[in-house]
């Protein structure tokens, strides 16, 4: 098994001088060297064949003993030096100080086809940043991260990826709902991949320690490798950097809103500096369209990270990043200006996206149609994914009545669609149909466009849970079925029609389906 290793992060940025693996505050460094923990009985459960190719490996490589050893953390690849990154973060609105890779260990960077991939094990044991926790991860959260990051990629959402995951053979104690019921679960290790895993928090920790020299090194490193389009110099370079991070963050969040993804823990340590969806924890997918919804029970009280608040939190987090970059600019006004444009830019992108989901060409009439729709969708529980997918079946010459029938499958309680609610739907459809009639596209062309932006299949919360329940019993077939299904989320897949369905009633209030905590 041959990989083209090209480590840059650990070579170009200052590392921790202390080499022992004990918990500590790590100052003046961007990372600490630490090796993954050996596991008692590693077993490979699933590999993303696409990620395998991306890093230049073959199917034969994947079946080798070496693959299992390297990517479950049981052997260090020759001439590489694993390390954990140092970062801080604002958690649920408060500065939390040093956090860091408490259970993620970076293996190395690979170059293949001119693409850089940093590979990182999650759940590979303690690091200097583990604080009071064990450095491990469990099967359920690993299945969720592996499947969802690959599914997001195929949906066209910027994201970190997942190469593989394996069972460790070790038991891990978790109190799933934090309610005093700890129990042993199966331990697992995910090998995830991204251009880089640098987060907003990597900058924040250096700024908080007034370590401006290293802060500048980190910013220069990030720009050099991941924002090559930035060619300005001096202070302008860091302003352009913030501008680009802002734009990528907006782009990512608009995609989340488009597909109905709720991250669940948008702390600044979980915000990628590359605008990638990162750290799949208590995330969830909208089923009924509801701005207030969050899958994360740890956040149930304030719902800071609810679906409808994600765009605002993106901006809040960028303010924290701007504060961290301030020492490199020493002038608040231009930083402020970049952030003040966030809202306007977000709304433009959001409207464009919603217009496309509705299959509309003209923006003239679409704002009104969009805002009306957001209201009607909430009158009765309406499945977000099914509604938009089936909306593509509407013809210009439909009556509002038969248009409603075409999307009826999206209603969780069809018997509620009568009286005032039915009138509201009727009004909305008559406005929508009026606009469709003025547009040039044929019904067929519009449907084709809409089916490229409105997915048919997403990783509904209950689907991941079914795969987890099976995996817990040693049956991994469903993991692969979902992986294959979600490779083509926009395609009709008649064999998999059963996955184009509303959340079943049993999953409405089930742990893992509608209720998730940060325990993972
Ligand atoms: P999260 O909100 O899950 O992204 O985690 C926040 C912080 O806690 C990060 O610094 C993680 O590395 C750390 N962390 C989470 N779970 C564990 C664990 N089991 N062991 C050590 N550190 C952890
Ligand atoms: Mg995290």
Number of domains: 4
How much is the radius of gyration in Å? 23 Å
The whole-number mean of residue pLDDT values reads 97
The major sheet is characterized as: 5 strands, antiparallel
Count the E strands.
11
N-to-C span: 31 Å
What compounds are bound to the protein? adenosine monophosphate, magnesium ion
Number of helices: 18
Strand line-up in the sheet with most strands: 2-8-9-7-6
Strand content: 5-15%
User: What is the approximate shape?
Assistant: globular
Overall structural class, as computed from helix and strand content, comes to: alpha+beta
| SSE order | HEEHHHEEEEEHEEHHHEEHHHHHHHHHH
Helix content: 40-55%
Residue windows where pLDDT falls under 50 for at least 5 positions: none
Cofactor: Mg(2+); Mn(2+)
Enzyme class: transferase
Binding site for ATP: 100, 102-103, 122, 134-135, 192, 199, 279
Protein name: Protein nucleotidyltransferase YdiU
């Amino acid at each position: 098994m041959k990989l083209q290793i090209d480590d840059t992060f650990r070579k170009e940025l200052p590392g921790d001088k202390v080499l022992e693996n004990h918990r500590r505050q790590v100052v003046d460094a961007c990372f600490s060297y630490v090796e993954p923990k050996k596991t008692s009985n590693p077993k490979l459960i699933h590999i993303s064949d696409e990620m395998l190719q991306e890093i230049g490996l073959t199917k034969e490589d994947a079946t080798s003993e070496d693959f299992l050893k390297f990517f479950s953390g049981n052997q260090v690849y020759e001439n590489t030096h694993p390390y954990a990154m140092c970062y801080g973060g604002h958690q649920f609105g408060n500065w939390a100080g040093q956090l860091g890779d408490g259970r993620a260990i970076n293996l190395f960077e690979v170059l293949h086809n001119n693409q850089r991939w940093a590979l990182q094990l999650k759940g590979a044991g303690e690091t200097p940043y583990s604080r009071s926790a064990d450095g491990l991860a469990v099967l359920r959260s690993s299945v969720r991260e592996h499947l969802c990051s690959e599914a997001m990629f195929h949906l066209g959402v910027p994201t970190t990826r997942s190469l593989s995951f394996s069972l460790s053979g070790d038991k891990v104690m978790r109190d799933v709902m934090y309610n005093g019921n700890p129990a042993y679960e199966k331990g697992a290790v995910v090998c995830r991949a991204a251009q880089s895993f640098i987060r907003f928090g990597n900058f924040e920790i250096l700024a908080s320690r007034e370590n401006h020299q290293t802060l500048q090194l980190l910013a220069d490193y990030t720009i050099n490798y991941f924002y090559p389009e930035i060619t300005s110099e001096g202070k302008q370079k860091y302003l352009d950097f913030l501008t680009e991070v802002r734009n990528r963050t907006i782009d990512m969040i608009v995609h989340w809103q488009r597909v109905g993804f709720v991250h669940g823990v948008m702390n600044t340590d979980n915000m990628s500096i590359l605008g990638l969806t990162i750290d799949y924890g208590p995330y969830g997918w909208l089923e009924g369209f509801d701005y207030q919804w969050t899958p994360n029970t740890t956040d149930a009280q304030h719902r800071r990270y609810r679906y409808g608040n994600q765009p605002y939190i993106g901006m809040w987090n960028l303010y924290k990043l701007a504060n961290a970059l301030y020492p490199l600019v020493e002038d608040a006004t231009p930083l402020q200006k970049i952030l003040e444009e966030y809202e306007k830019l977000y709304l433009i992108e959001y409207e464009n996206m919603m217009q496309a989901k509705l299959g509309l060409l003209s923006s003239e009439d679409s704002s009104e149609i969009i805002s009306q729709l957001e209201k009607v969708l909430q009158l009765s529980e309406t499945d977000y994914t099914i509604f938009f997918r089936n909306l593509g079946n509407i013809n210009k010459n439909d009556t509002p009545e038969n248009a409603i029938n075409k999307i009826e499958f999206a209603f969780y309680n069809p018997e509620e669609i009568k009286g005032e609610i039915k009138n509201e739907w009727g009004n909305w459809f008559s406005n929508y149909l009026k606009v469709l009639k003025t547009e040039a596209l044929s019904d067929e062309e519009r449907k084709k466009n809409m089916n490229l932006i409105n997915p048919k299949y997403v990783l509904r919360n209950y689907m991941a849970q079914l795969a987890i329940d099976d995996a817990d019993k040693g049956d991994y077939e469903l993991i692969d079925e979902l992986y294959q299904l979600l490779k083509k989320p926009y395609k009709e897949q008649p064999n998999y029609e059963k996955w184009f369905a509303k959340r079943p009633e049993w999953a409405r209030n089930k742990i893992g389906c509608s209720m998730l905590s940060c325990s993972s």
